[in-house]
Specification:
The complex is a heterotrimer.
Chain A lengths: L2 H10 L9 H7 L6 H8 L4 H7 L10 H19 L2 H9 L8 E3 L12 H16 L8 E3 L3 E5 L2 E5 L3 E4 L5 E6 L4 E2 L2 E2 L1 H24 L10 E7 L6 E7 L1 H13 L3 H7 L20 H8 L17 H10 L8 H6 L6 H8 L10 H21 L1
Parallel strand pairs in A: 1-2, 6-9
Antiparallel strand pairs in A: 2-5, 3-4, 5-6, 7-8, 9-10
Helix pairs in contact in A: 2-8, 8-9, 14-15
Chain B lengths: L3 H12 L3 E2 L13 E7 L7 E7 L6 E4 L7 H17 L4 E4 L8 E4 L5 E3 L2 H14 L10 H18 L7 E3 H6 L2 E2 L4 H4 L2 H8 L8 H8 L14 H20 L3 H34 L7 H21 L10 H25 L1 H9 L3 E10 L3 E3 L5 E3 L2 E6 L10 E4 L6 E9 L4 E9 L18 E6 L40
Parallel strand pairs in B: 2-7, 7-8
Antiparallel strand pairs in B: 1-9, 2-3, 3-4, 5-6, 10-13, 10-17, 11-12, 13-16, 14-15, 14-17, 15-16
Helix pairs in contact in B: 2-4, 3-4, 7-8, 9-10, 12-13
Chain C lengths: L8 H15 L7 E5 L6 H15 L3 E5 L2 H14 L5 E4 L8 H4 L5 E3 L11 E5 H4 L7 E6 L7 H7 L3 E8 L26 H8 L5 E3 L2 E2 L7 H8 L6 E2 L7 E3 L8 H12 L1 E6 L9 H16 L3 E4 L2 E6 L5 E5 L2 H14 L7 E4 H4 L4 E7 L10 H4 L1 H8 L2 E10 L2 H7 L17 H13 L2 E3 L10
Parallel strand pairs in C: 1-7, 1-8, 2-5, 2-6, 3-4, 3-5, 6-7, 9-10, 12-18, 12-19, 15-16, 15-17, 17-18
Antiparallel strand pairs in C: 11-13, 13-14
Helix pairs in contact in C: 6-7, 8-16, 9-10, 10-11
Classes of the chains: A alpha+beta, B alpha+beta, C alpha/beta.
């Protein structure tokens, strides 16, 4: 175990780490400047458990109804050896071949529902490489392959829904998502999230091929999303360019190297351990946990609740500190360079004398205040 | 530049109490709006779970769709309720005499107004309209009414895209025009917390405290249309399972009992939001209407009358996506509506003008000099009367000479910036009155301000003329040529699926 | 690495222009698109094409997007194509510049009836052309077609049998105040550019590109071409030896001198101020911008190029200052008026208004300078492209330190829409590319050893 791992292990405490998956990797691009999030994710800490222990709303909790619906849709699409998928991909990708060979990598060499990711990855790897080198009849569809991506020096196993291989030698990532495409329009925010996850698969697949000396362009930037069409459960396939998401994610993966730097800033013996008791209930005093979290710099925005379990903790913190960022981008933009509401209002009301670099903004604040005062007078 | 709203948001956050923004209402508020809350089922697109609606605060009606199986009876009941409300708006009509550019016509004296909690509900109703208006009409009772409901939902949600329209209004946006809370705009989209800021219960120490209480996960109920995961897992999923089990085994009684339980559960879930909607309505109703609000409602009634005429004369569902010409016309309408609404609000509301002054889109100050006799020679050599004035302002003036301005004191007058002379923190702006002052022989002296008068000048709205678009069958080759026969039905006849 | 047989820039340009002009009379498609990088001789091509088309069929309609673009084209026709009967179709509320009003060969009119009978070429804005009805002519040329919104094209396209579209794909996209995504994904999205819609509906249309920038110096072409024109690369028309920017020597050198000297040597400089979040108003940056301009003039900079080999003493009119926001223009102009009398005559404007303009030296206040975060507006590739591609000799960028970190902190959650990757460069990527290039040309405002970021 490297010393980095040991240090991250201390942060996490006694529970086993939550490995990176496509969703957590995608989150790297959602708020890249949040040190708190970077560190917690790198250490594989269960952020939802932290939020639960702190008695906070858990914004990312999954609805069982949503999960069931998603699973049912995915089953429908991949049923009968991917039969419903084939005509869709033929159309979306121009797959010309008459016959499509299909392989489910869900279970390898055993009757268990799922084999270990290592085993499935080995199988995936051999299938992909033999297709890429045309050593065998190309497998055109791989269901539930397992890919491996190096994240901050570690191997993360990733499970794309489907990989499609074209006769002309190009692989495509296919993601099955249960949000609808209504009259050709998928929800653009959900589509972005799906593409960012797909970007992780693209990078992992490129890594696999690169190990064998194959160029990155053997994996297409074009990702296919398969969604329910309109108000039915019939699938439809939509090609998207994930170029931007791939570029972004790959840059952020590169930036994970700054982890040691973040660790160095922590006071010694910092840990986010929940210290589960014999009944598995956390015993860590809440104020201690809050204090430990406070040692890492967050970057809170009101949008955090859409992608981070700890959003409400960071919000409380930001509000208690009177941070302008808690009021949204418009205020933060206007108040460029002033971090707290108290400072801004002190400058506005003349309780504080502006430093040289705050003169312009103070003037603007006082101008807005003057206009507001005029308005009050007029309408009084 | 600091927007006035940003300053107010900080004040609200600092004091814990909401700040007043515009104190004039720019959207018409009906005496009998149709209040509508919608919940959708988690998972499928636009499958309704429940709708609570009505025009009487004390008698909400709850319509429930079963967790699985056909939603047709529920949709049919919803269609009847909404259509009855819309029909009631068509009881009286008024005659409009001919004007210089329009022949005599008539229009209904009322129009539907539906109030929903948030923009997400508008999106849900749009999806529902996209689904229902393409449903085929068959013998089954209510199928025509359901298709008609789809048509109206599409009409209403299209109107909601137009700034200044009052046909379908999300309450959180409406409240946001008049009050600034101390939380972020994202959080303002939650009706319960926003209203807690604006109108806290008597016992609350502050709006902030009330909002904090309102957010308590144990009691907080999002206003829909999505239900939150905790509610799904803890309450809905067990009932859904029970219903599915009973349905599989064809246990009619068990099914009914589960539905009754669901009915009770959702009625309790929606009731707090229902009450908040009427609380918000009362607050908004107390605000005086701004000038121009009635005129905008006239336009709303015209649009409604036109749609009724379309339904009786043609009635085919609007296509799923706009064709090239329709899209361009639609965009022009949206841009025009936005500009007209902005201009109307600027002219009629001192808060809006104050906000513009803080963003450099308006300036205000005293008139220092006036030269009422100033004339100049036009290109044809004729003498033109162009009174001049100078305004002294401490607002930043980002405009350039040549810019045409308006002033709310004389809406038809126009002022051209001739000169901008920045001083030390202040600016002198030289203006020339180019319209609204009459002629030298018949001057309108009221337009000429006195020295010392404090005036606010805003950018004059650009004169608008709807460009002439080609007819649909004249769509040029650059835009794909005339579209093939309009797809009046969506591409699927797969119908609704069993869950 | 230039292979010996490569044709000269002039030959490349002639070849490209000939290919376009020769194709026009026999074109079987209904349209032709010409992508033109900055300063590639777009106006020349438009004028030559109009001249050629007017020989066979008149009148040839020429459509531009703004009045100043139209006036610019009309001026070119009047000077370089005097044998053509040129007409200027104008709106009633627009005053055509005096030099054009006074031009004897030029007809100016507000109604098409008054012009169409006798003109070879009729030039007007797209908005004005939209008022023309019930006509059909064989040819139109649309200039700055990437700045045209596709709904505007809808008004006019029916008037013409064939259309030549010319434009710069790297500039700012057209804009709408309407907040909606209901048109997204439509091949005829009215908020999209005219060329994007045209090509989406006519996939087989021939697309040419002009291969040479005559404006940008050799130092500017690789970074601009790579960052903003990934799908239509281009070369410099001049050789390194052609372009020179020189000063009188000096004993004492300030950082500002270092900046302009570096820019003179390399064509680029980034004057980096200490990191600070300032918002739109950054008095220090404004001072720095004006200080650089003043230094250029005070040291009597002389530019020499293939058009001016003898050298030209840099005047205020040869310099532009470009910003992202109107309020910054306002601040700079206000300061300039009060405290920098020597700089009167310098152009100060936003990227939007600098589109299509050319200067000897440009000074750019970086759109991301002093910001706490990047937004879609500040990241837009077209904005940075316009600002960094107006110059013939040198482009000097003024920025607060920390932009690279800002870009890295930018969340990538822009909404995604179906379809293939767009031809337009991605702003985040382009910004990174330009910044990486500028890193080699950085001069720090105050020398602070050991504080260099990167």
């Amino acid at each position: 175990m490297s010393s980095l791992d040991a240090r991250l292990g201390v942060l996490r405490g006694t529970t086993p780490p939550i490995p990176h998956n496509a969703r957590t990797l995608a989150a790297l691009t959602a708020n890249p400047s949040c040190d708190r999030r970077s560190l917690l994710d790198a250490a594989g800490i269960d952020k939802d458990a932290l939020a639960a222990h702190l008695d906070l709303p858990r914004p990312l909790r999954k609805s069982q109804l949503a999960l069931d619906y998603g699973i049912a849709f995915e089953r429908k699409v991949t049923a009968q050896a991917g039969a419903p998928l084939v005509p869709l991909l033929r159309q979306a990708l121009g797959l010309t071949l008459p016959e499509v060979s299909y392989e489910d990598v869900n279970s390898v060499g055993s009757d268990d529902d799922k084999s270990s990711p290592q085993l499935r990855h080995a199988r995936t790897r051999s299938l992909i490489l033999s297709a890429a080198h045309r050593r065998s009849d190309p497998r055109t569809l791989l269901d539930h392959p397992v890919l491996r991506l190096t994240v901050a020096g570690h191997q993360a196993y990733l499970e794309p829904d489907v990989l499609a291989f074209q006769r002309d030698g190009v692989f495509h990532v296919v993601e099955i998502k249960s949000f609808p495409v209504i009259h050709g329009q998928p929800d653009p925010i959900k589509a972005t999230a799906a593409l960012t996850q797909a970007a992780a698969y693209v990078l992992a697949l490129r890594e696999l091929l690169a190990d064998d000396g194959l160029p990155p362009d053997r994996v297409s930037d074009t990702v296919i999303l398969v969604n329910p069409r309109n108000f039915t459960r019939h699938p439809t396939a939509t090609p998207f360019s994930a170029h931007k998401q791939i570029k972004n994610l790959s840059r952020h993966l590169g930036r994970l190297r700054r982890l040691p730097e973040l660790l160095d800033k922590l006071p010694p013996a910092t840990t986010f351990d929940l210290a589960p008791g014999p009944d598995q209930k956390p015993t860590r005093p809440r104020n201690e946990l809050v204090a430990a979290l406070a040692t890492v710099r967050p970057h809170y925005t009101p949008g955090c609740r859409h992608h981070c379990d700890l959003a409400f903790h960071c919000r409380t913190e930001a509000r208690n500190q009177g941070r302008t960022a808690a009021l949204g981008t418009a205020v933060r933009d206007d108040l460029a360079g002033i971090d707290t509401i108290a400072t801004a209002l002190d400058l506005t009301d003349g309780r504080m004398h502006p430093s040289r670099d705050k003169q312009d903004i103070t003037q603007a604040l006082r101008h807005a205040q003057r206009i507001h005062a005029d308005l009050q007078q007029d309408t009084a | 530049m600091i927007q006035l709203t940003s300053l107010l948001r900080m004040r609200a956050a600092h004091t814990g109490n909401v700040q007043r923004a515009s104190q004039l209402r720019h959207l018409h508020l009906s005496d009998q709006p149709l209040m509508l809350l919608a919940l959708k089922q988690t998972g499928p697109a636009a499958r309704p779970l429940a709708v609570m609606l009505g025009t009487d605060p004390h008698r909400p009606r709850l319509l429930l769709a079963p967790p699985s199986g056909s939603t047709a009876p529920m949709l049919s009941a919803l269609a009847d309720a909404v259509t009855a409300y819309i029909d009631a708006c068509q009881r009286h009509r008024e005659h409009l005499p001919a004007t210089s550019n329009k022949p005599a016509r008539w229009r209904y004296t009322d129009a539907p107004q539906i109030l929903v909690p948030n923009p997400q509900t508008v999106q849900h109703l749009k999806d529902l309209g996209d689904d229902l208006r393409f449903r085929s009409v068959d013998e089954s009772p209510g199928s025509r009414a359901v298709q008609r409901l789809g048509h109206w939902l599409t009409y209403l949600t299209d109107r909601a895209d137009l700034p200044g329209s009052a046909a379908l209004i999300p309450m959180t946006s409406f409240l946001g025009m008049h009050w600034v809370s101390g939380q972020s705009p994202q959080e303002d989209e939650d009706l319960a917390t926003l209203l807690a800021w604006i109108d806290p219960p008597r016992h609350a120490a502050s709006g902030r405290d009330a909002a904090h209480t309102a957010e308590d996960p144990a009691t907080h109920r999002p206003a829909g249309p999505a239900t939150d995961a905790a509610f799904d897992n803890d309450h809905l999923a067990p009932l859904f399972d029970a219903y599915a089990r009973a349905r599989r085994r064809a246990l009619g009684l068990e099914q009914t009992r589960t539905l009754q339980e669901l009915d009770r559960l959702l009625a309790t879930y929606l009731q707090p939001t229902w009450d908040l909607m009427w609380q918000a309505y009362t607050l908004l109703q107390a605000l005086p209407e701004a000038k121009g609000t009635a005129r905008r409602w006239d336009h709303e009634r015209t649009a409604f009358t036109d749609e009724c005429t379309y339904l009786t004369q043609d009635g085919r569902p609007r296509p799923a996506r706009d064709n090239a010409v329709a899209a361009a016309v639609r965009l022009a309408c949206m841009e025009h509506a936005a500009a007209a609404f902005a201009a109307g609000r600027t002219a009629g509301d001192p808060f809006v003008r104050a906000e513009l002054r803080t963003t450099g889109k308006a300036f205000g100050g005293p008139v220092t000099t006036i030269d009422p006799e100033h004339t100049l020679h036009g290109p044809s050599g004729r003498t033109q009367w162009r009174p001049r004035l100078t305004v002294f302002t401490s607002d930043p003036v980002l405009m350039e000479p040549g810019q045409l301005l308006a002033c709310h004191t004389h809406p038809s007058a126009r002022y051209k910036i001739c000169e901008v002379t920045p001083g030390d923190g202040d600016t002198l702006v030289g203006l020339e009155i180019t319209a609204g002052m009459g002629t030298m022989d018949r001057p309108n002296h009221a337009v000429l301000p006195d020295a010392g008068a404090f005036l606010v000048f805003t950018i004059a709205p650009a004169p608008y003329r709807m460009p002439e678009f080609p007819a649909r069958d004249q769509t040029p080759w650059t835009h794909g040529g005339p579209p093939a026969g309009q797809p009046y039905h969506s591409d699927e006849d797969e119908g609704e699926e069993e869950q | 690495m230039t292979p010996p047989h490569r044709p000269s820039p002039q030959q490349q340009m002639d070849q490209a222009a000939r290919a376009i002009l020769e194709q026009l009379p026999t074109l079987t498609h209904r349209g032709l698109v010409v992508d033109s990088p900055p300063g590639a001789g777009k106006s020349t091509l438009v004028a030559r094409a109009a001249d050629a088309l007017a020989r066979s069929s008149t009148p040839c309609a020429v459509i531009a997007q703004t009045n100043s673009q139209v006036d610019h084209l009309v001026r070119r026709f009047a000077r370089r194509h005097p044998h053509l009967k040129t007409a200027r179709l104008t709106a009633t509320d627009y005053t055509v510049p005096h030099d054009l009003q006074a031009h004897p060969g030029l007809r100016i009119g507000t109604r098409i009836e008054a012009l169409e009978k006798r003109a070879d070429v009729i030039v007007g804005t797209a908005r004005k052309w939209a008022t023309v009805t019930d006509r059909r002519w064989p040819w139109a040329i649309i200039d700055e077609a990437y700045q045209m919104r596709s709904d505007t094209l809808l008004w006019t396209a029916g008037l013409f049998d064939r259309v030549l579209f010319v434009g710069d794909p790297g500039q700012l996209d057209p804009f709408s105040e309407a907040k909606t995504d209901r048109f997204r994904g439509l091949s005829h999205d009215p908020m999209n550019s005219a060329v994007a819609v045209l090509l989406a509906n006519n996939r087989d249309l021939p697309v040419h590109s002009l291969p040479v920038s005559w404006r940008l110096p050799p130092s500017a072409v690789p970074p601009i071409s790579n960052a903003f024109y990934p799908s239509t690369p281009f070369h410099a028309g001049s050789r390194e030896a052609d372009r020179a920017l020189t000063f009188s020597p000096l004993d004492i050198r300030t950082p500002t001198d270092e900046v302009i000297e570096h820019a003179a040597r390399t064509g680029w400089a980034l004057f980096e101020l200490p990191a600070r979040i300032t918002g739109q108003r950054d008095a220090e940056a404004v001072q720095a911008v004006l200080g650089i301009a003043e230094r250029l003039l005070a040291r009597q900079a002389v530019t020499a190029c293939e058009e001016d080999p003898e050298g030209h003493v840099l005047m205020p009119g040869d310099i532009a200052i470009g910003t992202a926001h109107r309020s910054q223009v306002h601040d700079i102009r206000a300061l300039l008026t009060c405290h920098y009398p020597r700089l009167h005559g310098i152009t100060v404007d936003t990227a939007n208004r600098l589109q299509g303009c050319e200067f000897r030296v440009t000074i750019v206040l970086h759109p991301l300078s002093g910001r706490g975060d990047a937004s879609a507006f500040h990241l837009e590739a077209g904005r940075l492209c316009v600002l960094t591609s107006r110059h013939r000799h040198a482009c000097i960028v003024v920025a607060r330190a920390g932009i690279a970190e800002l870009l890295d902190a930018h969340p990538s959650n822009d909404p995604a829409y179906p379809g293939a990757a767009s031809k337009v460069a991605d702003g985040w990527e382009a910004n990174h590319a330009v910044l990486a290039h500028l890193a080699e040309h950085t001069v720090h405002a105050r020398a602070r050893p050991g504080r260099r970021r990167g």
